[in-house]
Design goal:
The protein contains five helices and five strands, in the order E-H-E-H-E-H-E-H-E-H. It starts with a strand and ends in a 7-residue tail after the last helix. It has a five-stranded parallel β-sheet. The radius of gyration is 16 Å and the shape is globular. Helix 3 links the parallel strand 3 and strand 4.
């Protein structure tokens, strides 16, 4: 069975996000083994400059790298990543699962990911050029992974 890891910055505090994540985690248990690793976010000062921003991203990304399994296919969520339709995303997951037993999705904090972690990515994807809270992106990601499995299996969910 395929293992899907989601390595992300920040804890989910809002109950409605937790409920959605729990629901999709339950639904996905039929198709894959799901691991979600939530790492602490760095405190962002009110006044921030490029050096401080880079330092925060570096600390967060170093911590994330330490939680990525070496044999995993790494997909970073990044504004400059490739946009996929649901069908294309489903095919991508299907193709990856033929060559790797693990996929790790990486979701940065509010400042995003640094070049070090982006350079490790086998693929960079983008859900939208719009900005969303990283907590909501987790829900989007889980829903799209679930949809991908439903599409691959020819099951009715995706229309």
């Amino acid at each position: 069975m395929l293992t899907i890891n989601i390595v992300c910055i920040g804890k989910i505090k809002e109950k409605f996000f937790k409920d959605a994540i729990d629901e999709y985690s339950k639904r996905l248990s039929k198709y894959c083994k799901l691991n979600i690793v939530e790492l602490p976010d760095e405190k962002i000062p009110e006044k921030i400059n490029t050096n401080i921003e880079n330092d925060i991203k570096s600390k967060e990304c170093t911590n994330m790298i330490n939680h990525i399994k070496k044999d995993s296919y790494i997909i970073c969520l990044d504004l400059n990543g490739k946009e996929f339709s649901s069908e294309q995303f489903s095919k991508k997951i299907e193709d990856i699962s033929m060559e790797s037993s693990q996929i790790t999705f990486v979701i940065g904090g509010s400042l995003g990911l640094n070049q070090e972690i982006l350079s490790l990515a086998n693929q960079k994807i983008c859900f939208s050029k719009m900005t969303f809270p990283h907590q909501l992106i987790r829900v989007f990601l889980l829903e799209q992974i679930f949809r991908a499995f439903k599409i691959s299996n020819g099951e009715t969910y995706h229309r």
